# Entry
Amino acid sequence: MDTDNRVLRTRFGDRLLHWTMVSCFFLVAMSGLSWFFPSLHWLGSVLGPPQLARILHPFLGVVVFVLLMCMFVRFVHHNMPVRTDAVWFRHVLDVLRNRHGQKLQIGKYNAGQKILFWGIMALISALFVTGLVIWRAYFAVYFPIPVIRLALLAHSAAALALILLVLGHIYMGLWVRGSITGMVTGYVSRAWARQHHDRWYAEEVAPEDTTSVKHHS
Ligand code: HEM
# Structure
């Protein structure tokens, strides 16, 4: 991409945070799925032999939760609901058909991405709390068996919902051309910024646009 034509979308630290989360998330999710669906037992080998996977899964889960808290701090201010999110909802079908005729007044993240953000926050938090309750080595001993059973059920349900949500997130990342490049290199084209996040471009990118490549959080 021509450097005059690109704008910084995601800083290095935030990209590192995102991709570290992706790596840890996949390790935890794959080992968890291997215990839930017997036909997927081979997925568990991502964390080594079964005994080791059982030990590592909860510790990595704690790492995922800590990364989530960092993500919360770094991304929450872009994910607060605003009035103009309603415009995106009204035109969601046009968005899905990739028709960008009208201005949708989309800030740094659109309403769908905000739902993803809060969904991820809620589901990983639920996984963390229920995970502590069912963590045999340390905490399960403090809870009665019916509570452990309920927590196990809630843990599995939250995990499946989260995996579906993340699959949707990956699909949208692939669907909107240029966004994965943005999360890898940090940069997107001006056209991309104007087309997909018009209010972000107008309010935060264009006003400071005095040199070729600008830096934005
Ligand atoms: C292979 C897996 C993944 C891919 C390809 C991917 C891709 C992306 C891309 C391209 C963006 C930038 C969107 C934009 O600039 O508008 C993004 C943002 C984001 N991703 Fe991912 N992602 C993946 C997995 C995950 C996982 C596992 C999580 C958390 C559990 C996650 C959480 C986020 C968050 C919080 C944002 C910022 C959006 C917001 O705050 O609303 N991603 N991702």
Q: What stands out?
A: The domain at 3-208 is CATH 1.20.950.20 (Fumarate Reductase Cytochrome B subunit). The beta strands are 6-8, 187-189. The chain has a mean pLDDT of 93. The radius of gyration is 20 Å.
